[in-house]
Design brief:
Blueprint lengths: L1 E6 L4 E8 L2 E9 L4 H16 L8 E5 L5 H18 L2 E5 L1 H7 L7 E9 L2 E7 L5 E9 H9 L5 E4 L16 H8 L19 H11 L1
Parallel strand pairs: 1-4, 4-5, 6-9
Antiparallel strand pairs: 1-2, 2-3, 6-7, 7-8
Helix pairs in contact: 1-2
C-alpha cells in the first residue's frame, strides 16, 4: 500500500510517503508563516523524491487538529483536494495521537501537549498502545498538571512548545510508526473531513460573549 501522510497543524510541515513497508520520502520543515504558501509545493516535491506519481497513492492520512487554526486548514484542504480529485481513500488522525505514538520513552503514559495560549493547552493522555486514557481536550494547564499527579504510573511529556515542565521530549514524528498504526483506520468521504479545533475560534468566542451581553 502507498500512503501520503500530511500534518500541518503546527508551524511545521510534516509529510511523508509510505510505500511497501518503508518511508520513501519525508519532510520535517519549520515553515512558520510560509506554511500556507509553500506546503503544497513541498508535498509535490515528495512525489518526485519517491519516484511515485500522485495517482499511485492508495490512501491519504491527514492530521485534522488540534493546533494552529490556519495550519489545520492548510493540511485538511490539501488532503481533501488530493482525495477528491484523484478519488483516493482518506482517513484522519489527531495531531495528539501522532505525537503520542512518536515518543522514544518507555513510560506507562504518553502526554502530548500543544500550547493554546493564555494558560491553556491542547492535551491528551495515552497508554502504551496509544489508546486514550484521558480524552483529548482544550484544558487549563494547571488542571492538567493536577490530573497528571494522580496518574498510576510514569508519564512522558511530548511537545514542541515552551510548556512549563521539568522534563519534556521534543516532538519528532516517527512516520513509520504513525502510518502503520493508523493505515487501516476507516476511510471517510473527502467532503466530510473537517478541522478538529477542540475549541472555538476567537471570532466565535467573541460572538458568544456578545450574545450573552
Amino acid at each position: 500500500m502507498k500512503i501520503l501522510y500530511i500534518d500541518t497543524t503546527s508551524n511545521y510541515l510534516y509529510a511523508a510517503i509510505y510505500s511497501l513497508g518503508k518511508i520513501t520520502a519525508e519532510i520535517k520543515l519549520k515553515m512558520d508563516k510560509d506554511l500556507s504558501v509553500f506546503a503544497l509545493k513541498e508535498i509535490s516535491l515528495l512525489f518526485d523524491k519517491s519516484n511515485i506519481k500522485p495517482n499511485d497513492i492508495d490512501k491519504i492520512i491527514v492530521s485534522n487538529g488540534p493546533g494552529s487554526f490556519t495550519g489545520i486548514r492548510v493540511g485538511v484542504t490539501i488532503a481533501k483536494t488530493f482525495a477528491w480529485g484523484l478519488k483516493k481513500e482518506i482517513s484522519v488522525i489527531s495531531s495528539l495521537e501522532a505525537m503520542a505514538i512518536s515518543t522514544k520513552k518507555d513510560t506507562t503514559f504518553r502526554v502530548p501537549i500543544i500550547d493554546a495560549r493564555r494558560g491553556y493547552v491542547f492535551a491528551g493522555i495515552y497508554d502504551q498502545d496509544n489508546n486514550e486514557s484521558f480524552k483529548s481536550q482544550y484544558i487549563e494547564l494547571t488542571k492538567l498538571k493536577s490530573i497528571l499527579l494522580a496518574l498510576p504510573g510514569e508519564y512522558s511529556i511530548i511537545t514542541n512548545d515552551n510548556i512549563d515542565f521539568d522534563e519534556k521530549e521534543e516532538y519528532d514524528p516517527q512516520f513509520i510508526k504513525i502510518i502503520e498504526k493508523y493505515m487501516d483506520r476507516e476511510s471517510v468521504n473527502p467532503h466530510g473531513v473537517n478541522p478538529n479545533y477542540l475549541k472555538m475560534t476567537e471570532a466565535e468566542e467573541k460572538k458568544m460573549e456578545d450574545n450573552i451581553i
